[in-house]
From TrEMBL:
Keyword entries, A-Z: Membrane, Transmembrane, Transmembrane helix
Stated name of the protein: SpoVA/SpoVAEb family sporulation membrane protein
UniProt xrefs under Pfam families: SpoVAC_SpoVAEB (PF03862)
The organism of origin for this protein: Clostridium porci
InterPro entries hit by this protein: SpoVA
Transmembrane segments: 6-24, 31-48, 91-112
């Protein structure tokens, strides 16, 4: 049942983003930034954590989860190092995910031989 719930919640988030893309003139990059900021804001006000515990991977995998991860890192960094932690915390918390995306993207480019259009 957890897989079904994660699939449905993730699908609803993606469907809402698709509707936003089709009904507004926002570019995909701005929508991605909007999702990250929404995840950060929801984490800051304390709503994201209960939602992610209930929804599982359906809430943590999309960009909302990345925004929440950044927020948690910044919050922890400020608690440990003060103002400097505001700059280091988000990068430290999300470094593994960013590194994995870069490595897997590079490996995929080696396997599939991308071509310029």
């Amino acid at each position: 049942m957890d897989y079904v719930k994660a699939f449905l919640i993730g699908g609803i988030i993606c469907a809402l983003v698709q509707i936003l893309m089709e009904k507004t003139k926002l570019m995909p990059g701005r929508i991605m930034v909007l999702l990250v900021v929404c995840g950060s804001v929801l984490g800051a006000v304390g709503l994201y954590e209960p939602f992610s515990k209930w929804a599982g991977a359906g809430a943590t995998v999309p960009l909302l989860g990345f925004g929440n991860t950044l927020w948690k890192g910044v919050k922890e960094g400020i608690g440990q190092e003060g103002l400097l932690g505001a700059f280091k915390g988000g990068l430290t918390a999300s470094a593994a995910g960013i590194c994995a995306a870069l490595v897997f993207g590079y490996l995929a480019s080696l396997i599939f031989k991308p071509k310029m259009k």
